[in-house]
Amino acid sequence: MLTALLCASLLAPPGDSAVLLIRVLDVSDARIGGDAILITDSAGATGRHVLIDASGHGATVAAYLRRFGVDTLAAVILSHPHADHYGGLPVVLNRFPVRAFIYGGTPRTLRTYLALLDEIAARRIPVVTADTGVRTVTLVTGADTVELQLLAPPPTCRQLPRNASGDAINDCSVGVRLTRGAFTMLLPGDAEQAELGWWMMAHPALLRADVLKAGHHGSANATSAALLDVVQPKAVAISANGRQHPFAAVLRLLAARGIPTYCTADAGTITVRVLRNATWTITTERAGTCHARSQLGSGSNP
Amino acid sequence: MKETHRFIVDRHEEALTVVEVDGTVFLDVPRWLLPGATRADDVLAVTVEAEADRTVVTLERDTAATARAQADAAAAVQRLKRRDPGGDVRL
């Protein structure tokens, strides 16, 4: 019964009570998992949508977008250029009009990535390169306003990161701080300690959030006690592929602080529902407690 | 029968490395299979010589191709950057 209610809430049309929905989509079926987060502001006659990342499997994400009534994306934000975040974008671009493309401007040699950038240019999609400071994207829907503050990666990301482990790309994530009234949510991409530490020094006030989408799929190198001290989340969502992620150390840390934690690999799509009065709830597609997939305390997974 | 292919390294994951194969699909390969100095964004030239009872696969870091790909990547980012008016955005 509970599962049925949760499923019903997920499938509810986006026209109820000027709700803002942030759906951390379950893309754990994709071979390499990744992130895909759909933001829907339903304050207007029709919902307006922003997609952050498209996992490595575009067909899965496109099916979600259809299911949730998306016909156009007001913006697509690419957190960072790893294939488990951008790999699904070509399918999304082919199936949905996209009004703006936002990314960090980090170059990569991968042909699929260059083809994606060429496709965006060919379609003449307006581009926001969030490579410096903090830029704000304001999504206005009816009388409602949602602010997305884009936390740029460090300046070194404007060059090709050269790091033996390849992890430098994670530390070139564009962070997103979503604000709607008094509600805030932080979506740091795959940022790890180096970039998170840089943001903590540069913009500590912007990291405070009611809900945290855990960085790097629940790896220990992206969720630390120091970060939780700054963010002070009341709930955490983890987009994990269910193989390496999430890490046991992260789940232990969150449990020790009594922070409710939801994992896509165990509970399916996670939906944060924010009402106009800033009250918010979290529901999941099915019942499921987070289970660690790795006992590692740190790691270099994507 | 000799074939040539091209890997580009997306990232390392513990004992695995994710590579882009011929600009199309992604494949997990054991990290030990790759040249020791392999890094993210490297282009690897892959040569395959298949016979009835054995296949010889050679993976070689192609520094010249990597340099060309890096230049292409930087140019692609710059092309998009020129289309960004800057500042805050209202959607």
Can you put this structure into words, describing what you see?
The complex is a heterodimer of chains A (302) and B (91). Helix content of chain A is 25%, strand content 24%. Chain A has 302 residues and is of the alpha/beta class. Chain A has a single domain (3-284), classed as Metallo-beta-lactamase, Chain A (4-Layer Sandwich), CATH 3.60.15.10. In chain A, the strands form two sheets. An eight-stranded mixed beta sheet of chain A has the order 6-5-4-3-2-1-14-15, with helices on one face. In chain A, strands 7-8-9-10-11-12-13 form a seven-stranded mixed beta sheet. The termini of chain A are far apart. In chain A, 58% of the residues are buried. The model of chain A is unreliable at 1-16 and 298-302 (pLDDT under 50). Chain B is α+β, with helices and mostly antiparallel strands and 91 residues long. Helix content of chain B is 21%, strand content 45%. Chain B has one helix spanning 63-81; strands spanning 2-13, 16-21, 25-30, 43-50, 55-61, 89-90. Chain B has a five-stranded antiparallel beta sheet. The radius of gyration of chain B is 17 Å and the shape is elongated. The mean pLDDT of chain B is 94. Strand 7 (134-141) of chain A pairs parallel with strand 6 (89-90) of chain B, so a sheet runs across the interface.
